[in-house]
């Protein structure tokens, strides 16, 4: 079983007591506020000025990226799509949240996938990066190569 899956299951326990009150406004996955009045669902500490919070788009869960053990790279990636916490996470392929024992999580973007939806018979060991979003050919940036110096056909006599 992937170490990521185990880590995520442990984190599930940390925010399972979150309130069921939902905001009627559209949520963003990552938010930085200046007021410092938002409290972390994991540690209970208030958000500090300029600090980034990760917010679930499906429930009131919000937490420091560090409390969710998210790297800066993952937190930046999470800001680009409607992120869901471990309790709300659905498969990014079939959009179902069932068979949670077979859902694995990308170590780069934190999206969830049923192993069978991505053609795997079991969860990979160690670090795993999804092919659908993070390693998809359309998402890879290619650094253009500098053109080679032109060879001239002029010969000095």
From TrEMBL:
Subcellular location: Nucleus
Chief location category: nucleus
InterPro entries: Znf_FYVE_PHD, Znf_PHD, Znf_PHD-finger, Znf_RING/FYVE/PHD
Protein name, as recorded: PHD-finger
Compositionally skewed regions (Polar residues) per UniProt: 16-25
The entry's keywords: Metal-binding, Nucleus, Repeat, Transcription, Transcription regulation, Zinc, Zinc-finger
SMART domains for the chain: PHD (SM00249)
Occurrences of domain PHD-type (ranges): 37-91, 88-136
Annotated SUPFAM superfamilies: FYVE/PHD zinc finger (SSF57903)
Record-linked Gene3D superfamilies: Zinc/RING finger domain, C3HC4 (zinc finger)
């Amino acid at each position: 079983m992937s170490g990521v899956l185990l880590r995520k299951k442990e984190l599930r326990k940390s925010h399972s007591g979150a309130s069921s009150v939902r905001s009627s406004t559209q949520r963003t996955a990552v938010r930085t506020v200046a007021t410092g009045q938002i409290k972390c669902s994991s540690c209970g500490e208030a958000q500090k000025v300029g600090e980034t919070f990760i917010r679930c788009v499906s429930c009131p869960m919000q937490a420091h990226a560090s409390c969710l053990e998210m790297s800066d790279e993952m937190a930046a990636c999470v800001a680009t799509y409607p992120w869901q916490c471990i309790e709300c996470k659905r498969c990014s392929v079939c959009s179902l949240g069932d068979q949670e024992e077979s859902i694995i999580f990308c170590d780069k973007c934190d999206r969830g996938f049923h192993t069978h939806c991505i053609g795997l018979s079991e969860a990979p060991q160690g670090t795993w990066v999804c092919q659908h979003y993070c390693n998809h050919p359309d998402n890879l940036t290619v650094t253009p190569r500098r053109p080679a110096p032109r060879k001239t056909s002029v010969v000095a006599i």
